[in-house]
Design a protein that fits this description.
seven-stranded mixed β-sheet, alpha/beta, 2 domains, 367 residues, Nucleotidyltransferase, domain 5, single chain
C-alpha cells in the first residue's frame, strides 16, 4: 500500500449532529475503510449552525468566526481519527472535507451553495492537504451541486442488476443504477430532518432513537396529505433540496392552527411522510427491484421496517451487503472525491446534478 492510497473523508450533514470522519484506502477494487470516528457537536455549536441555516440576519463576524470554529472541529475530528488508527498525518495523501452546509440554493438567477468549516484551518491544524468546496464547482458547471454521494455509488455499487441506493440523512436522496449505465439521482425530500425537529421541540432529544416515539403514534392521514402537497415533489429531476425548504417553520405552517393532533401522531406521520416520498420517487422513475439503504436512517429500526413493508415486492437491505457500512458511505464519498481531485481527474456529474460538463471537483488547500 503506497502512501497516497490513504485518504480521509469528513462531513457533517443536514442532521447537524456531528462530524463523520473516515480513513479509507483506495485500490483498484472497492474502498477499504480502515478506521472511523464520530465527532459529536455540543449543543452550543449545533445551535450556531442551525441559526445560520435559518437564513436569519447575521453579521459577517458571526459567519467568519463560525466558519473557523467548525474548521477547528473538523481538524480535531481528523486528529482523533488518526489517533484511533495509530497512524501519522504523513501517511495520508489528502483530506476530502465536505464541510457543513448552511445554505443550498441551486435554482434561481444566482445559484449558490455555502459550506463552512474553513479548509485552510483544517490543513494547518492537521498538517494534511485538504480538498474542499466540492459543490460550488458543480454549480458553476450549471449543476445542482447535489447530490454528490451518488458519484461513489456509481463507482462502487454498480451491479449486473438494476438497483437503487437510498441515502437517508437529514434529507433523503436516491441513486438509480442500471445495467445499461444510464444512471441518475436526486433528492426525494425530507429524511430525518423534520422528525429530528419535532422530537427536539417536545423532548429535547436530537433524534428519535430507533423511531420508538414514532412507533408509539398513529399516522394522521389528513396531515400526511397536506405534507405531500409540497410542489417540490412534482419537479422533474435532477433536483436537490435542504433545510432551506424542509425545516421547522415549514412544518409548523402545515399543522392545524389549533393543534389537535397528538405529538406522537405527528412524529408517526413525519416518518410515514419520509417513507412515502421515498417510495413514490422510486416507483415513478425505475422498475429496479433491489434497494440498498445508507445514511443515519439505516439505523432507525422502525423506519427501515416501514420502508420494507411499503416496498414488499422489493429486496430491501443496507449497503453493508455491497461492502460499505451504511454509516460511512457519504464520508467515504468525499474521501474518494479528494482522491480524484488530487489525481487531476474530471468527474462526470451530468447524470446526477444536471451539470453541463465534467469537472474537477473542489479546491486544493496545501498543508
Amino acid at each position: 500500500m503506497t502512501t497516497c492510497d490513504q485518504f480521509i473523508g469528513l462531513i457533517s450533514g443536514t442532521s447537524v449532529d456531528g462530524i463523520d470522519a473516515v480513513l479509507v484506502a483506495f485500490s483498484e477494487n472497492r474502498p477499504q475503510i480502515i478506521e472511523t470516528h464520530f465527532h459529536e457537536f455540543d449543543s452550543t455549536v449545533r445551535e450556531k449552525i442551525l441559526f445560520l441555516s435559518r437564513g436569519s440576519e447575521i453579521t459577517l463576524k458571526q459567519l467568519g468566526e463560525t466558519d473557523v470554529e467548525i474548521g477547528r472541529l473538523f481538524a480535531a475530528a481528523t486528529n482523533a481519527l488518526l489517533k484511533r488508527a495509530n497512524i501519522s498525518a504523513e501517511s495520508i495523501c489528502a483530506i476530502g472535507s465536505h464541510g457543513q452546509t448552511i445554505w443550498h440554493q441551486p435554482d434561481g438567477l444566482i445559484p449558490f451553495s455555502m459550506q463552512i468549516g474553513d479548509p485552510n484551518t483544517i490543513a494547518e491544524l492537521t498538517g494534511i492537504t485538504t480538498v474542499a468546496d466540492f459543490r460550488r464547482r458543480d454549480l458553476s458547471a450549471r449543476g445542482q451541486g447535489a447530490p454528490l454521494a451518488p458519484l461513489l455509488h456509481r463507482n462502487c455499487f454498480q451491479g449486473d442488476r438494476d438497483r437503487v441506493i437510498v441515502n437517508i440523512g437529514g434529507i433523503s436522496n436516491i441513486t438509480v443504477l442500471t445495467c445499461r449505465g444510464n444512471n441518475f439521482a436526486f433528492d426525494t425530500g425530507p429524511g430525518n430532518v423534520l422528525m429530528d425537529y419535532w422530537i427536539h421541540k417536545h423532548h429535547l432529544q436530537t433524534f428519535d432513537v430507533n423511531g420508538e416515539w414514532a412507533r408509539s403514534g398513529k399516522v394522521n392521514s389528513d396531515l400526511l396529505d397536506v405534507l405531500k402537497e409540497e410542489p417540490y415533489f412534482d419537479l422533474p429531476h435532477p433536483k436537490s433540496t435542504g433545510r432551506e425548504l424542509f425545516n421547522g417553520s415549514w412544518l409548523e405552517k402545515k399543522l392545524p392552527p389549533m393543534l389537535t393532533i397528538p405529538e406522537e401522531d405527528v412524529q408517526a406521520t413525519l416518518l410515514a411522510f419520509t417513507v412515502k416520498t421515498i417510495k413514490s420517487s422510486i416507483k415513478k422513475v425505475t422498475e429496479a427491484q433491489q434497494i440498498f439503504v445508507c445514511g443515519g436512517g439505516a439505523n432507525n429500526n422502525y423506519l427501515m421496517k416501514c420502508l420494507a413493508e411499503s416496498l414488499l415486492q422489493y429486496e430491501v437491505s443496507t449497503t453493508s451487503r455491497l461492502g460499505i457500512d451504511p454509516d460511512w458511505v457519504e464520508a467515504t464519498a468525499f474521501a474518494w472525491m479528494a482522491s480524484e481531485t488530487i489525481a487531476g481527474r474530471c468527474i462526470d456529474t451530468t447524470a446526477f446534478t444536471g451539470a453541463k460538463s465534467s469537472v474537477i471537483l473542489g479546491g486544493i488547500y496545501q498543508a
